[in-house]
Design goal:
The chain is α+β, with helices and mostly antiparallel strands. It is 34% helix and 11% strand. The two termini are 35 Å apart. The model has no long low-confidence stretch (mean pLDDT 83).
Length: 191
């Protein structure tokens, strides 16, 4: 058995803009579900928050075509060392998927990160050739990840140490990790 960590949103999601934190940008392509079904894989949706709050975006990511002074055209045509990240997809036909990272400044103290592992979704019953069934599972997983992000954002409001400076002070004073919201509070938030 092997574990695979797959990010359907890829570079587009990682290099989000200022007003796009914690939004999913998944393509319509369902091949990762079809591959999982072909090998009877179990998919565990993972939701996470915190990274977008650990940096201040000064300039949103640009498509290389939008770079000034013809730089984007040179990058795409002259085989210069890339200043951008493209998707690692063999079937990608559009250079629109190539993005530059945003210009950002890290926060002085990183935000607390929260992770939620969703309900495992088994694919042994799924026929990888049945694209409609695979698309249904794809949407189910996408919904699970979105609900997880929403749940974490809501539960974070009950974290007494969500403010970095308070958390950092507590941890320096007591020499241990600051507590977070309780699992009971988290479960209450999600009913």
């Amino acid at each position: 058995r092997q574990a695979v960590l797959h990010f359907p949103g890829g570079a587009r999601e990682a290099y989000h803009g200022r007003d796009e934190a914690y939004k999913l940008f998944w393509p319509e392509n369902i091949d990762f579900i079809r591959t999982a079904a072909k090998f009877n894989a179990t998919i565990v949706p993972i939701s996470a928050i915190g990274a977008a709050d650990s940096a201040n975006i000064l300039l949103d990511p640009l498509n290389p075509h939008e770079l000034p002074f013809g730089l984007g055209k040179r990058i795409l045509n002259d085989n210069l060392p890339p200043l951008s990240v493209g998707t690692a997809r063999f079937d990608e036909k559009s250079s629109n998927s190539i993005r530059t990272p945003p210009l950002l400044i890290p926060t002085l103290i990183p935000a607390r990160h929260y992770f939620l592992f969703g309900r495992p979704i088994r694919t042994h019953h799924l026929d990888y050739r049945d694209k409609e069934s695979c698309k249904k599972v794809y949407k189910e997983i996408q919904g699970e990840v979105e609900r997880g992000i929403d749940s974490l954002l809501h539960a974070r409001e009950k974290d007494p140490f969500k403010i970095s400076l308070l958390r950092y002070s507590f941890e320096q004073l007591y020499g241990k990790a600051a507590p977070t919201f309780s699992v009971i509070d988290f479960n209450t938030c999600n009913k």
